[in-house]
Structures are given as C-alpha cells and as structure tokens.
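REQUEST ID: PR-0412
SUBMITTED BY: lab tech R.K.
PRIORITY: routine
TASK: structure prediction, single protein chain
INPUT:
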Amino acid sequence: MKKREVDLRTAGKTIINQLGVVLRTGHLHDIDNVAVIDAIEKFLNLLNPITEAEGSLRIDLVGEFFYINDSRVRYPLEYMLNFDYLLREFQKRELGTVIFESQLRIDDLKAFLKVFINATYSSTPYEAMETSLESIQNIRIDKLKKIKEDGDIDQRRIVKKTYFNAVSFTEGVMNKLKAGEKVNMKVAKRVVESMVDLILSEEQLLVGMTAIKDYDEYTYHHSVNVSVLSIAIGQKIGLSRKALTELGLVALFHDIGKMEIPKEILNKPTAFTEEEWRVIKRHPYWGACTILKLKGIDRTSIR
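STATUS: complete
OUTPUT:
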C-alpha cells in the first residue's frame, strides 16, 4: 500500500469530523465568533498539508459513506455524531462532492461556511451553493448522485444503526465487567436478536458492515463482527432463531477474557516473551469463567 493511501485513511476520519465541527459551530455562532475561527483553523491545519502534497482534497458522499480522494473513511464511534450530522447536511443540500484545491485561507473557509449555511433557506440549495461559490476559485462542488432507491437507503440506515448500537453496547458491557458491575442480559439478548433479524432479512448488508475496521475500537468491532459472522454461518446450517440468538450472544463475548490480561501486555508493540504468551493463551479460560457467571446464557451454547 502506498504511503499516500495510508495517510489519507489515517487522516480521513479526523478531517470529516472536523468539517462537521466547523459546520455545526457555524450554525450556532456568528461566522466571526472565536469558536468558529478556532474550528476553521483546526480544519485548515488538517487540510492544507494534504492539498499541498496532493494538489487537492476531494470529499465524496456515496450512499451513507464519505470518501476522501477515493479512500473510504471509516466511522469511529467517537466521531459518529459529527459524521451523521455532516451526512444529513450534505443530503439536505443535495451535495455529493466538495473539492478543496491548493492552500486555503481562513477567509476561504468562512466564505464557504456562509454559502453552506445560507443554502438552508433556498428551495434549490445545491443550485444556490453552486452559484455563490463561483467567486471562490479553490473550492468546487458537485451534486449528490442517487445510487439506490429510498427503501434501500432506509434499510442501510437501519443496518448501520443496529451494528453501531451493538458496538456501543459491547463497549458498555466490557466497562461494566471491569468495574465489577452486573450486566443486563435481557438487553444483551435484544441487541443480538436485532442482528439475528437482520441476518434473516438483510444478510448481505449486515455482513458487509463487518468490513469496517476501527483500530481505536478494535476489540468492540471485532466482537460484534464475530457475532454477526457466527449468526450468518448458523443461519446457513439451519439453526433456529433462538439458537442463533444464543450463538450470537456467546460469540459477542468470545474475547471477554482479554479483560484479565494486563494492558502493558495486551498493548505491547513489540514481540511477546514466552511468559507473556502464557498469560495471553489463558484468556479463553478466563472468558469462559466470566460467561459462566453471567445469568441468562444457555449453558449448551457456552459448551
């Protein structure tokens, strides 16, 4: 993989998030407010090094995903609020592409922000933006292209929400167990049941979500991915809905034993020692012990 691609994938989520911050702040405050200027400066600090190296930075909205210079931007949980906000605002304006060229100044972004906000009040928001941006030479836009029927988009939204709800729930469970608190297994089952229902009706869409990789939230994404794929395999071999739920539940908790591994070992950047490997190899045992203590999981599924 080329270094350019790695850099874009690493920086992409931060750029999209910060653009969301700029637009949200601009909606709340006067355009010359210190909070708006600060948000713009942070965005330019991310943007300009890339436009200098690449010549331009192109943001595309395709379906419900953003791409930067043709590299798909992954959706980290901590940025979901701004990602979803930006998605909605682009869709409201029928805005599919924004291209930033060469080095931009604060005044360029202020002008873009003003045009973006004012388009809200137009009956033809994209056309209003296109006309107003003609005077800004280094920012260009293109119209949103509809690639799916509305029903398909609604279903994708449901699938995405279900997936990220499961990731968020998994993080919450891990934190509760670390703190010695009880886990509500009824809620856990409802989360898994929602995934089972989608596997039965929209298998391809939900399984497709397992391609999302977020290294900051790796453990939680991985746990949900294993659960989704386990349910999909179980469905293929003819398991009942109840059995699929139990399978998905234990799959969701399959790595729970890693909580017992000291962080200095689990996050060690270099090779493990023999003793460290012995500790790591015990995590399935610790996980089984933890799951056995949870009330509401079928013992047959655990075996």
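NOTES: The chain has two domains: 3-143, 150-302.
REVIEWED BY: pending
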